Structure formats: structure tokens, C-alpha cells
Input
Amino acid sequence: MAKTLRNYVCQSCGSAFPKWAGKCEACGAWNSIVEEPTGGGDVPKGLSGKRGKGVTFVALDGDVPQTIRRATGMAEFDRVTGGGLVRGSAVLIGGDPGIGKSTLMLQVVTTLRGIRAAYISGEEAVEQVQLRARRLGLGPDGSTPSAKTPEGEVQTELAAATSLRDIMASLDRPDAPQVVVIDSIQTLYLDSLDSAPGTVAQVRTCSAELIRLAKSRGFTLLLVGHVTKEGQIAGPRVLEHMVDTVLYFEGERGHHFRILRSVKNRFGPANEIGVFEMTDRGLAEVPNPSALFLAERHGNISGVSVFAGIEGTRPVLVEVQALVSPSPLATPRRAVVGWDSARLAMTLAVLETRCGLGLAGSEVYLNIAGGLRITEPAADLSVALALISSLSDRPVPSDLIAFGEIGLSGEVRMVTQAETRLKEAAKLGFKRAILPKRLSQPSGKKLKVEGLELIEIGHLQEMIDWLYNEVRSNALQATVTASRQQHAGDKPR
Ligand code: TYD
Ligand code: MG
Output
């Protein structure tokens, strides 16, 4: 029988198949299978009698060589990477096209002090990169690209190249740069492979070669990768497993700030974020994100609440905006930006069923101000607060923050790091906080934060009652009563 060559590779998940199909059986993606002459490889042959060399084992508690980190001098970037770039490691920076990856990388390599860096662009010509650097104030007068290290070498080397062979040849030398940026991995190609740049085979081979070289020469490799609209690094998810650190650069296009998030980090905490503001002089670091997210608050508007969230290890206060409006449609619209639509549906159902608020016939829009994406269930309570406020057309008191997870019976559950959240709120001048009851600290002592009145609730209904007492809103009372009666009327007897 003829040997089967498995050379049809899914560009979405990297699975290999012996023949073409319209749908990938492994990940379910349509029209993602592409023939790759050398991508898949043969069916494994086994060890076939040849002996290997044997590996050396050491004790788990043996001596550990110190990880050598190179701080970039960009505090937010260093925070996300866990303290700087690790020697011989590979970092993947993913993000949508146009989000600012190239700008970020250019700023990182030019802020490095006393470290030789190379920026290799496969997308822009050298002049374009130089012009950009000049426009961002990273030019010769700004003491960077042409700055010299103490040994008198040029600090940032710039090149435009796409051939892996050429790039490898220029990096495989004893005086290789200490930090290398490849912008982007999808533009590189190896001429011995027949597939086009950006395919799984090319991206995988080029990355593997570069990572191997980075380990042997001890430089830090920063790979820029574009993300597809499904939110994956284009084509090769395989890449995420090959590198040591995966960072995502995200943000809404219409908004002026960007978040660098670590989703995997072998040398530091994952899920850490760095916040940047986009300016015409490049990316500016934002050491206090809460102040930025709350900067455009307008007082006394209904449907707005403030959520005290945690992103990575630091607290971030954001504004949750909700709009509840009557709908002529049989199936009213529900639209969410920046939060999970399934969690919104759940919160709505709980408000409807457990608290008797009439939301079923209304359109509901929810937005996290500023374009931040929140994934924490702790935002439930703030979302509910914004919804109630919009429904009753009464503003939430402006000195109030809220956090807590809502359970299906309407109970409010405790969340992690309550004290950190509360302290951040107090620091930003908030006076009151609605939070889950029975929030005993692990040490057993009662939660107390100076300058902050804590309103502890066990059920969602308690929050509605509290809000009614607070704003003395007839509208709220009327809404609640009316919806309760309606709800009672709906019930089968
Ligand atoms: P760019 O870095 O090229 O995005 P990517 O490499 O992710 O595709 O940035 C896109 C555009 O935005 C570019 O024209 C420069 C501009 N820009 C600014 O003007 N200021 C900034 O702070 C950033 C990040 C980008
Ligand atoms: Mg770019």
C-alpha cells in the first residue's frame, strides 16, 4: 500500500489530515484545511532500533541558575512580563491589526537602556519605521534609536526582512542583539517550504527556528502576531504552546486606551494587565487606570454604576452603563459591549424572577465605559445596580461602588480580594460600597476600610430596598410594585 502523507492541515487548529475536507473534524472550522507539502509529516515510524544518548537528571531542589531579566524601563510593560524580559525566552504579542503592536514594540526597544536590540520589520520599510520613530519623539534628538551603549555600539538596529534564512544568518553570531523583535511572524517565510507566509507550516517552522536560536544565543525574542476576528492568533494556535509568554494587546478601536494582558507566562504571573493611553506621541503609561476609566463620569445620570474590579493583581474601577427602554419587538434586543452576554441574560432573569422587576418586554443595552472588557462574575451586582437605576430612571448615588456575584436564587455571593477593591474605592474618594454579606476575612477579623461605609447585603432584593430608601424614588417604588403585581398576575394559580 502506498504511504499516506498527512499533509492537509487545518489553519485554525493545526490538525493534519490525509485528505482535504470542507470542515475540520478536530475544531469544526469551515474551509480552513489547506494542503501543505511539508507541514504534516509521515506517520510516526517508532524508535526503529536506534539508541538515544540519555538525558541527565538533577534533583528538584538542586541549585537553580538565576533567571536573568532585562527591565525595559517601561513600568507597565515590565509589570505584565513579570519584571522584565527573560534572557533566552520567547514572547508572543498578539492583537488586532492597527491596535498599536508595532508602536509598542518600537517604544519597548527604544526605552531599553544599555541593551542592544534589533527591530526586524516584515511589514514596513526601514524608512517608514524611522519616520514613525521620529514622529513619536524616539528619533535621534530623543536620545534613542542611534543612542550608544557604554561600549559605543548602536543601541537599536533596524532592518526590513522577511526571509527566515537571512534573519537567522544575521542573528546567529556571538555578538547577537540581546533583544530581537520580529514584526510580524506572519510575514516570515522559509524558502524550503512550499506554503505561503502566514500558513501554519511557515509560522510554526519560522517560530521554532527563531526560538531555538534565541535559547542558544541567549537573546529575548519578541514575536508580533496578528489575531483573527475569532480572537485567536491568526492561524497558528500552535504558536501559543511554543512560546514562554503570550501577551495580548487589546482595546476598542474608537477608544484611546490599550491594555496589554498576559494570558500565559512561564516567568511571572498570568492575567496581569498593563494600561496604556494612545497619544499622538505614542503610548503613554497609565499607572492609575481607575482614574482614567472614571475620568469622563457625568454625575446624576440614571443607569450608571461603578464596579470595583480586579484585573490581574491590581484593582480597577470602571463605570457600568445600562439602558433599559421599551421595545415594540416581540423579542426585544439585548446588546452587550465589554461584558459576557450570557451573564447579562442571567442577571436579567434573576431580577425578573426573584425580585419581580419587569424587564422581559424591554430592550437592554449594557456597556462597560472606556472599552474595557470585564470577565469577572463579581461585576454582577454593579450590572444589576445599573439596570435597576435605568429601569427606575433614578441615578445611583455618585459616591457608591458595588461588587458581588449574583446566584440564581438572587443571593449575593462573596468574591475574592474584597479589601483590595474597597481600598481602591476609598482612595478614589468613594464613600459607600455595596458588597456581599458575611464577608469574613480568612483571619476572622471583620472587614473595615477607613472612610468607607460598607453596606452588606445577602440578597439582591436588599439592594433594591436600600436604593429605594436612599433615592426616595416614587418611580422606583412604583416600578417595583407594578412589576411585582404584574409578576404575580403572570403566575399560574
Ligand atoms: P500600529 O502600531 O501600526 O498597529 P499594529 O502594528 O498593531 O498594526 O498602530 C496603528 C496606527 O495608530 C499607526 O498609524 C500609529 C497610530 N498610533 C498613534 O498615533 N499613537 C499611538 O499611541 C499608537 C499605539 C498608535
Ligand atoms: Mg504593525
Remarks:
- Residues 101-102, 123, 183 surround magnesium ion (ligand 2) (CB under 6 Å).
